Amino acid sequence: MSDPVSSARPIIAGTRIGHIHLKVADLDRALGFYRGVLGFELMQRYGDQAAFIAAGGYHHHIGLNTWESKGGHPPPPGTTGLFHTAILYPTRAALADALQRLIDAGIALDGASDHGVSEALYLRDPDQNGVELYWDRSEDKLPRNADGSLAMFTRRLDLQDLLKQRESA
Length: 169
Known about the structure:
169 residues; 2 domains; 3 helices
């Protein structure tokens, strides 16, 4: 039998991940974070069971629901599941604004990294779901090896420098 990984055809270019649905214990608490702190807009709400939120008027980027999780607890460490949700910001200044929102809300970061191709903030939502807030560098700014391949890395992100970007925007 052939190796299914080595014989797989690549997925078509232009394919992207559209939206996510998160199981939450308390819908209002989750909305307090995603709307109140991060600034997503409420597009639709179904009582205390579900809400759909987005940026820029899209039908929904994030679905929040309590269908299987109302009053529940996060999964224990060492179990499978979603590592984090990654939210892409269009510019470094927009990421800086997100950092300021987190600071203003007293939300601690789990980490902050410069990956060469992107800069990222890592944190947890009220249900302990991992959240990555990031922006991508433009193609002409990506670090490259001598052969032209990507030269990604992980270095500490200078948060004070990031915040200065917000001030100059």
